[in-house]
Design goal:
Chain lengths: 256, 121
């Protein structure tokens, strides 16, 4: 049933029932039963067209819940680096009340080899200035992770929610572990180190990352030097490039 | 033999001229050429410093920040958004894009390319 619903949702258009079952590669009898079940629940419509049966999606909020479910599965199957970048972005969306949803689209969904990440932000009457408020996170992502973020905006409506994989909704709960929260602090400090090109900022970022690593390993240091010692046993960080590399590696584990 | 980095700077100047000349004719062309004009000027400087020039825009920006500083980085980054808006603006809007904005960015580019030219000595 899930496979059939996924095919109907993703195609976005009416489908011949026979083609649909063939495409989904699901058993014939069980597919007819599943489609009947979905029709009875009001998730899809089935109409006769000559001697064929045509299946279409019902456009309502219950169907959207189904899409959100499929999107979350797709998001979780993405490359861990993309998930990390997206999680950092999502964290900064919580206080942007005008943004109702965010979607991923474009080359990033097609696997490796992407140069940029396209994000569609949906809201009612979103203005260019609303996107400006995301300049900070955009810059942080680009300077630290080395990947270009392109923000696009559009209205919050049914059609636009189908233009990509939904990665954020305004109803999301702001829930992060202590380790993840420290990772965000580390990002602030490493960004200062990148832009400020100052040894002090670098040292501070290194301490922050050490704490993140300690927490992720369930070690709770009493002092900064305890944290650094624990971190140095595993990693050798001599410069900003090393710090970026290790920071990404640790981040990918934390936001898996 | 003309030094390679000077050839890049020549291309930057040529693109800048095209950006200026297309202002009234096609704002999109103007913004597009403006980004590449400035990027080529940055590349000229990286070549002058003996750096291997990456193909990826973002990597060029990183080197730009490292060797020319934040002002040059910010300008290049902003021109990229402007170019994206010009090239893909039919799909969505993400930066303010009008003649006045492009004109201002042309002027700023001229100044910064001038600074780069001064450094190539």
């Amino acid at each position: 049933m899930l496979k059939l619903m996924e095919k109907i949702l993703l195609s976005g258009e009416e489908k011949n029932m026979e083609f649909l079952i063939r495409e989904a590669k699901t058993g014939r009898n069980s597919s007819f039963e599943a489609l009947k079940f979905l029709e009875e629940r009001g998730l899809i419509g089935i109409k006769d067209f000559g001697n064929q049966k045509i299946v279409s999606l019902v456009r309502d909020n219950s169907v959207l819940q189904f899409k959100y479910y499929l999107d979350s599965m797709e998001f979780k199957s993405l490359d861990s680096f993309v998930k990390l970048v997206v999680d950092v972005l999502i964290f900064s969306l919580f206080d942007k009340k005008k943004i109702k949803a965010a979607l991923l689209f474009g080359s990033v969904l097609k696997g490796k080899g992407f140069n940029d990440i396209d994000v569609l932000l949906l809201g009612n009457n979103l203005k260019v200035e609303d996107l400006k408020s995301l300049d900070n996170v955009k810059s942080k992502v680009e300077r630290f992770f080395g990947v270009i973020l392109n923000f696009h905006k559009n209205d919050f409506n049914f059609d636009n929610l189908f233009n990509g994989v939904v990665i954020y909704q305004s109803s999301y709960v702001l829930e992060y572990t202590k380790t993840q929260r420290h990772y965000f602090e580390f990002l602030d400090s490493v960004y200062d180190a990148i832009v400020g090109k100052d040894k002090e900022f670098f040292d501070s970022a290194l301490v922050n990352l050490s704490y993140v690593y300690c927490f992720s390993e369930n070690f709770f240091p009493k002092t900064k030097s305890d944290a650094l010692d624990f971190f140095n046993k595993r990693y050798k960080v001599k410069n900003l490039n090393d710090l970026k590399k290790v920071g990404v590696e640790i981040g990918k584990e934390i936001f898996r | 033999m003309v030094k390679k980095y000077l050839g890049e700077l020549e291309v930057a100047d040529e693109f800048l001229k095209v950006a200026k000349n297309s202002l009234s004719l096609s704002l999109r062309t103007s913004a597009n050429r403006l980004y590449f004009s400035f990027e080529r000027a940055v590349i000229a400087y990286l070549m002058f410093k003996g750096k291997k020039v990456p193909k990826n825009h973002q990597k060029i920006w990183e080197l730009c920040a490292e060797f020319l500083g934040e002002e040059f980085y910010d300008h290049l980054r902003h021109l990229y958004d402007l170019r994206m808006q010009a090239d893909y603006g039919n799909i969505s809007v993400f930066v303010v894009f009008n003649k006045k904005v492009v004109e201002e960015e042309i002027m700023k580019s001229e100044v910064l390319i001038g600074k780069i030219r001064g450094l190539l000595k």
